[in-house]
């Protein structure tokens, strides 16, 4: 669009030039940008810290639940083994009583 010829009688638009001089307004703008970036960085690190804490807490709960389920399985296996032993002893007792 910049390569298009201009109609006669129009003056070219002045180009936008950035002013990098150190005056109070530019310094204030720079400091406000830095302050905003620092605030955003602080918010992000805080949220990441919260997410890490939540994920570690969830991992700990999952480990505790897994351990509890493993204990339940071991208890169920022990109960099944005891019931088989009781059945064997009960059949032996029945045989002895029949004699």
Write structural notes for this entry.
With 99 residues, this protein is mainly alpha-helical. It contains one helix and no strands. The protein has one helix at residues 24-98. The longest helix has 75 residues, at 24-98.
List the helices and strands and how they pair.
Layout: H1 24-98
Radius of gyration, in Å, reads: 40 Å
Number of β-strand runs: 0
- Assembly annotation: single chain
Summing up helix and strand content along with how strands pair, one would put the structural category as: mainly alpha
- Cα distance, first to last residue? 113 Å
Order of H and E elements: H
Provide the helix percentage. over 70%
The best one-word shape is: rod-shaped
Low-confidence stretches: none
Largest sheet: none
Strand residues, percent: under 5%
Which whole number gives the mean pLDDT?
89
Number of helices: 1
Which properties best describe this structure?
1 helix; 76% helix; single chain; 99 residues; mainly alpha; rod-shaped
Question: How would you summarize this macromolecular structure in one to three sentences?
Answer:
By secondary structure, the protein is mostly helical. The chain is built from one helix and no strands.
């Amino acid at each position: 669009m910049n390569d298009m010829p201009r109609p006669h009688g129009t003056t070219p638009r002045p180009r936008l030039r950035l002013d990098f001089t150190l005056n109070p307004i530019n310094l204030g703008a720079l400091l406000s940008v830095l302050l905003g970036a620092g605030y955003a960085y602080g918010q992000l690190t805080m949220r990441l810290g919260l997410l890490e804490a939540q994920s570690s807490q969830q991992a700990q709960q999952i480990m505790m639940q897994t351990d509890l389920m493993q204990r339940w399985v071991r208890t169920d296996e022990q109960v099944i083994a005891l019931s088989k032993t009781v059945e064997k002893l009960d059949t032996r007792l029945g045989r002895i009583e029949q004699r």
